[in-house]
Amino acid sequence: MHELSLISEVIEQVSRDACERGIEKVNSVTLTIGSLSHVQPDSLQFCFDLAKQQTILHDAALEIIKKEGNQLEIVEYEGEQAHGEHSC
Asked: Is 84 left (phi over 0), alpha (psi -120 to 50) or beta?
């Protein structure tokens, strides 16, 4: 199931970027998935729900937008700024 590998990389990238920006909790992640990418949105959602546990995305919702092409891209994420010191 390559969806687990893909979503693990997405979680890692979002977590790293959020930490650099002082975000302590991610509330939502929006991805685009190309129709030729061979990624199953339901499987990706399932893997996201498993892989996000114990991360700053633990309560985050995943929005998947289908489009033409073969890419999987992180469109945006939303989160909450850390109050004071943050640890990453």
From this structure: left
